[in-house]
Amino acid sequence: MPDSETLSNLMSENRRFEPPAELAADANVKAEAYDRAAADRLAFWAEAAERLDWGQKWDEVLDWSDPPFAKWFVGGTLNAAVNCVDRHVAAGDGDKVALHWVGEPEGDTRDLTYADLKDEVCRAANALTELGVRKGDRVAIYMPMIPETVVAMLACARLGAPHTVVFGGFSADALATRIADCQAKVVVTADGGYRRGNPSALKPAVDEACEKAAENGQTVEKVLVVRRTGQDLGESGWDDDRDVWWHDVVASASSEHEAEQHDSEHPLYVMYTSGTTGKPKGILHTTGGYLTGTAYTHWSVFDLKPGTDVYWCTADVGWVTGHSYLVYGPLANGATQVMYEGTPDSPHKGRWWEIVEKYGVTIFYTAPTAIRTFMKWGDEHPGKFDLSSIRVLGSVGEPINPEAYIWYRETIGAGKVPVVDTWWQTETGQIMISPLPGVTAGKPGSAMKALPGVSADVVTEAGESVPNGSGGYLVLTEPWPAMLRTLWGDDERFKETYWAKYAEQGFYFAGDGAKKDDDGDLWMLGRVDDVMNVSGHRLSTTEIESALVSHPKVAEAAVVGATDDMTGQAVVAFVILRESAVEEADEEGEGEELVQELRQHVAKEIGAIAKPRQIMIVPELPKTRSGKIMRRLLRDVAEHREVGDVTTLADSTVMDLIKQKEGTGA
Ligand code: WT7
Questions:
Q1: Model's pTM, two decimal places?
Q2: pLDDT value at position 1?
Q3: Could you tell me which residues carry N6-acetyllysine (predicted)?
Q4: Ramachandran class of 490: left when φ > 0, alpha when ψ lies in -120 to 50, beta otherwise
Q5: Closest CA to 398 of 531, 268, 262
């Protein structure tokens, strides 16, 4: 649980921001929705499902007869791609822009209408079929932020071939693990994408990953490659039997494709996320409930008016936010949106705001870490552009601190735009806890309360609801449509991770701490397990520890998440070297070199996002008599605090040795 100082600081926050009158008067969702949903939750979600086009209507809204395995809209059939694309064209919106795509190099833009998207998705579906993809097969997608990524995802959905999108910043090893775990037979990738002003390669990592996956028993049959940068393909080059260019097979394919109606519970995708062990969890989402949950929440939380709004979610499609709020939710709602390839400071620190001005973005959704970065860069960058089109601002990924909330509202939102702080997870698929922009009087730093149709609570270790003014564990007390159905190939771990702690009550354990304030509104307090949140991305302490000990010079490692002004948390590692490496490191200057080597090693094993901010080489780690590492004490060191109670340590002098090391800056 978070310390009481953080809690009381947050609780003394008493500013309130009422919804703007105009927005409230015309809001998609009014206060009555809470009562309606509370009166009959399943009828509420059934009504939300009517937003979609179904082949066959469902017989039963929810089958919860075998918890925790839920089935939503049982007996119903639908096609996610048809719902996201074809039906808008059929309704006469073919000329409406679906994607205003902005490449990182200036002037490199493309607008895709819904009609364009339909043609592309059909072509890609035909091409994937040609490459041997059948309903039920898994397809890995490792791509930059380009329209073809969205097209590839929707083409897979159309065929009923679950995709697993792996963030382009992950390493070849991480990609290989995911390919092997879900046995993907096809990979869709690009030669590279643009980041920070330069082409950044992807294809060589795919080659390496295919080799590694093969060693783990999974042969990738085909690799479909988009030419984006035209860069050199690296040493391994091109495998004529395996590799095919997108522009060869997709461009020549027919734009006619008859879509099958899939079962409501047909797997839509697997998204890997870090857990408390070294092995990432494959979160499985299915079709009908997921699309209902994402479409409804995208429409309600952002007050989307599909005819006039221009929506922009800055998340990469490699994360769940990109899946739910860049691809499935917005497209199911027929939204017009912006998609940007590159980094926010390329070629200048006002790039995002320039894009907002150019396209007249009305709804903007980003993460606190980005907001804090812009605060640091200074108001002059957004100040150069006209941001007056913006009417709703969203935040996701980690708790938003009141300072960042206020800056966001003042500087980006002209002091009047509502900020919706949306709490959810890869597992929940959809936003669960959030203000509604036309209903809620927002409090800076609070995600406020569960959305209509969602049931959340804060409970004690024993599962009792805590009174207002107290903190505890966040739980979800009733199933919801976009909930994960299981972990790919591991029902046991699914039960154990999320449902075992409150098995008696049947609650879903989110792994987050939270507090109810005096009004009963919720304040999220971060993870309560060995999972870190760095820039809104989930990283596992164990996974990084395993990466470190896989280095030949490392004997043992302990990793903690330390508070960081910019990234929320940062990775700090404590490493014990093998005997042979100790002497080497002791030599003048060698220590720093080794630290760099270890940081690079973590980047290679997992990805650059997992690189520790700091690595301390220490002689011992603090352990209890039963051998458990006391991360709490290491966190004290990492956050430069007085070290806490050491009485349960097997050897209480260990912390003195570590503190000495800190003093020397090693
Ligand atoms: C974890 C889920 C959901 C998409 C992005 C991250 C933290 C997320 C908030 C928020 C406080 C938040 C939680 C959660 N988190 N949004 N608005 N306020 N914390 O997805 O990688 O699945 O991580 O992110 O700790 O458990 P994810």
A1: 0.94
A2: 42
A3: 628
A4: beta
A5: 531
